[in-house]
Amino acid sequence: MQNQQEVNRLKDIVQNLLDEAKQQGATAAEAGLSQEDGLSVSVRLGDVETIEHHCSQGLGITVYFGQRKGSASTTDLSLASIKETVSAACSIARYTSEDEYAGLPEQALLATHFPDLDLNHPWAISADEAIALAIECEDVARNYDVEITNSEGASVNTHQGIHVLGNSLGFLEGSLTTRHSLSCSVLAQRGESMQRDYWYSVARNANNLEAAVEVGKKAAQRTLRRLEGRSLSTRQCPVLYSAEIASGLLSSFVGAISGGSLYRKSSFLLNALDTQVFPEFVHIHEQPHLKGALGSSAYDNEGVATQARDLVTDGILRSYVLGSYSARKLGLHSTGNAGGVRNLTIDPGVLDFDSLLKQMDTGLLVTELMGQGVNILTGDYSRGAAGFWVENGQIQYPVEEITIAGNLKDMLRNIVAIGGDVDYRGNVRTGSILVERMSIAGQ
Amino acid sequence: MKILNLAKQAILVPAGIQDADIEKIMGRLLGPSVDAADIYFQSSHSESWVMEGGIIKEGSHSIEQGVGVRAVSGEKTGFAYSDRIELPVLLEAANNVRAIGRQGQDAQIGLIHAANSVQYYPVANPLKSLGEQQKIDLLRQVDAETRKLDHRIEEVIISLSGVHETILVANQDGSLAADIRPLVRMNVSVIVVENGRREQGSMGGGGRSDYNYFVDLNRALEYGREAVRQALVNLEAQEAPAGNMTVVLGSGWPGILLHEAIGHGLEGDFNRKGTSAFSGRVGERVASDLCTVVDDGTLPGRRGSLSIDDEGTPTENTVLIENGILKGYMQDKLNARLMGVKSTGNGRRESYASLPMPRMTNTYMLAGKHNPEEIIKSVKKGLYAKNFAGGQVDITSGKFVFSASEAYLIENGKITRPVKGATLIGNGPDVLTKVSMVGSDLALDSGVGSCGKEGQSVPVGVGQPTLKIDGITVGGTSV
């Protein structure tokens, strides 16, 4: 599909943009360009539902006139459009205010080494082959049990993207990345109870996708186990976040130590640096250079070099998550986190999932969360949940139509155990997380 | 015809695309077993301004344009899109897409220009409705006035954004329809601090109008006052109760209940597939007889309104629930055809790069006869939820949640103390059967809603009068 030549062509366009900005009087500029191609097929009840051919592009530029800033973007990459986009950004910069913290990143922090992170593995799959794979996956799920009565289908997606980033400090780099996924969602029915659940696999390299039969089987199993869920009475009890949703807890933590929340003082972890935020056995680090991982990149959204580093050791917060702007606002240096964290990993514990259930003994296993209900400023947390009631370390029955609530500050501090059952699919890698006590509201 | 001509001037003329070219692309799309096809041209110009820390901090401008081509054969859809509006690119996309049907000859199509019967919003470009300096002055004025309101205000963040979107959609029957859609939005959020406790409040609004909407009636200043009021209430808020209790929902934005609890479950696609908790229930009682709920895309100037949907179908005022009985679903063309009904003008898409689906427009409950004070007075112990953040639903199990951003305890018929944002959770098919009082104070939201479905976001409206629900689970921390 796309190759290094194409990267070079797009780099030229970005350089053009930067040159044009200079022509129009900008004192500094940063520009980015993305191009993505892909194929998505979905099947339902054994037949094709949609075949989508994706092909999109877009560029954006931010210009600085001293400390004033303006931005513009377009999906049209023609020369005329580049000129217009730059002039739109420049015209905006005439109206924005001087902001002493605005500007490009520190030159010394820009990435200069670009290791091959093994992120580009185009999948030469035809629409017909993708359809066959999706049907194989859905068939397994549909035939898994007589109580699987309906389907939302299965889908196969493959995407390749080129992202080029440049700035007037001389940074100009492009990367080719691929992303492929396979997913399946089915319905089960028993009497009045109808439930739906899903499973998916995602990877940079299609060879690392879970087998279609596995994805289909898990989708069916996850759906069936939810049948005849009931509510719980209102109570307080331990809560075990299963690995696939526990990443949400860590994402809230990252939100609270991110520059934007900190300089706006809208975080429940203000001034928490070098203090105990988690129990002592918790270690959290970022691994941006992991080969083939979904969050990997040698540089952040501003071109600042990313690096493996500790965020939390022995439960103590060691570093914030900062881009250049928020770093300057806080009197600190960018941590290479413009655009967020990359492959955030919490060190797994020794207990597998069943051992975690045993450790909890009696409590709630949560497998699904719904709604927003998380206030990063205050840490107040109240979300809709579904999962399973556990007694004597054994799953008793599915539960639904309940909420779980607490304050994130207490919840993080009162983590009792982290499982070894790590979910590697996302940008946040964690095992299941057991929280000592939360409020459950139900009937 | 005026809108169609303006739309052609905006999209087709600069790209050098003639009527004959559209006929050619459509002919290519319409292979032998293709039941339906469309070509969707879109050009969207948008901008946003952000004031924070007392300065105009960010400004951005964006142009998005492209074409999506779709062919449908039975239940199968082929789709491709391009950012480039060029004949060879579009013919190739059409070739890819028609593969969804059998191979065969191109069809012959003649374009018919469709005129919109009614237009529910002005066509003028909202981005040009104020000069750049006037936009900046508006932001500065709101910032200054808001900061004056209370000494506990620590930060004020104001955003102003506008979109001017033009669409053209050609259908397999040769019709060519167009729409020009303005959309503006303003939001004020504040952080207040007292004795080391920090809280926030936020208020915004907008609609299919231009920036003068915020100048008229001093709406913009009102957003600031309301954001501050909410933030100060939050400073006083205590832990919310937990458990099942009577809940009174305020009028306006709390109508998000209808959107989540029943609206999504009544979208045609889920019901055709039988995956909704409401599937196959037309004619059945799904709400108390006090409840009549509609989806209305025809309200002038509303954020969720459309003159035509993204498939060229005029929008309607569709009755979903009448006196508690389920009347029908919201449909796009594909699902309407497969279910043997007519499209209700609910076929919407985020952009040319995504497929249309049945989506809501403005969803609200009609007014009842109770005075809102009477409703509060009737509750011995419960929760009054005046405002909400967002919500979510599982349309299969019917379970939905929405999070209160401003709520109070009701004790012995009186609103007493504020409680911290609690999440409410319920079951869609049950919740409206528990509605025991409906207020006379129908209000629509201020124009802030965005709805996400399968990764596509579209602007929507919600509304309702004050409602009393006899028993819903409130997820507080105070057990």
Question: Layout of helices and strands, plus pairs?
Answer:
The complex is a heterodimer of chains A (443) and B (479).
Chain A: H1 4-23, E1 28-44, E2 47-65, E3 68-74, H2 79-93, H3 127-142, E4 148-167, E5 172-190, E6 193-203, H4 212-224, E7 235-241, H5 243-256, H6 259-263, E8 284-286, E9 309-313, E10 316-317, H7 324-330, E11 344-346, H8 353-360, E12 363-370, E13 380-391, E14 394-407, H9 408-413, E15 415-418, E16 428-429, E17 433-441
Parallel strand pairs in A: 7-12, 11-16
Antiparallel strand pairs in A: 1-2, 1-4, 2-3, 4-5, 5-6, 7-17, 8-9, 8-11, 9-10, 12-13, 13-14, 14-17, 15-17
Helix pairs in contact in A: 1-2, 3-4
Chain B: H1 2-15, H2 19-29, E1 36-52, E2 55-73, E3 76-82, H3 87-98, E4 112-113, H4 132-147, E5 153-171, E6 175-194, E7 197-207, H5 212-215, H6 219-236, E8 242-249, H7 256-263, H8 268-272, E9 293-296, E10 317-322, E11 325-326, H9 333-339, E12 347-348, E13 357-358, E14 362-365, H10 372-377, E15 381-393, E16 399-411, E17 414-419, E18 423-427, H11 428-431, E19 435-438, E20 443-444, E21 450-453, E22 456-459, E23 461-464, E24 467-475
Parallel strand pairs in B: 4-6, 8-15, 14-23
Antiparallel strand pairs in B: 1-2, 1-5, 2-3, 5-6, 6-7, 8-24, 9-10, 9-14, 10-11, 12-13, 15-16, 16-17, 16-18, 18-24, 19-24, 20-23, 21-22
Helix pairs in contact in B: 2-3, 4-6
Tell the overall outline of chain B: globular
Tell me, briefly, the overall form of chain A.
Answer: globular
Using only C-alpha atoms, the radius of gyration of chain A works out to: 24 Å
Which spans of chain B have pLDDT < 50 for at least 5 consecutive residues? none
Unreliable stretches of chain A? none
CATH superfamily assignment of the largest domain in chain A?
Answer: PmbA/TldD superfamily
Strand content of chain A: 35-45%
Structural class of chain A: alpha+beta
State the oligomer: heterodimer
Structural class of chain B: alpha+beta
- Straight-line N-to-C gap of chain A: 55 Å
Largest interface: A-B, 77 and 78 residues
**What's the tally of helices of chain A?**
9
Main β-sheet description of chain A: 6 strands, antiparallel
Strand order of the largest sheet of chain A: 3-2-1-4-5-6
CATH architecture of the largest domain in chain A: 2-Layer Sandwich
Question: What is the arithmetic mean of pLDDT of chain A?
Answer: 96
**What is the arithmetic mean of pLDDT of chain B?**
94
Helix run count of chain B? 11
The arrangement of helices and strands of chain A along the chain is HEEEHHEEEHEHHEEEHEHEEEHEEE
State the domain count of chain A.
2
